[in-house]
Task: inverse folding
């Protein structure tokens, strides 16, 4: 039997939403063990001078909970 925990993180990218998600997963993976699922909850963009300046995503991550 296993237990999983969920957290929400926000990632950004100047290139794409996909890169923003990758940033979240790769950064979280440096300190969290056993990442399981990344679920994109929200996407938006920052606009400057009428152009997309930054892609942002809110990602819900699950990872296996270890007691020790």
Result:
């Amino acid at each position: 039997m296993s237990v999983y925990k969920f957290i929400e993180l926000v990632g950004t990218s100047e290139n794409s939403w996909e890169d923003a998600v990758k940033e979240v997963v790769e950064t979280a993976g440096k300190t969290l063990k056993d990442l399981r699922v990344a679920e994109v909850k929200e996407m938006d963009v920052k606009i400057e001078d009428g152009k997309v300046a930054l892609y942002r995503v809110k990602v819900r991550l699950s990872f296996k909970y270890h007691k020790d």
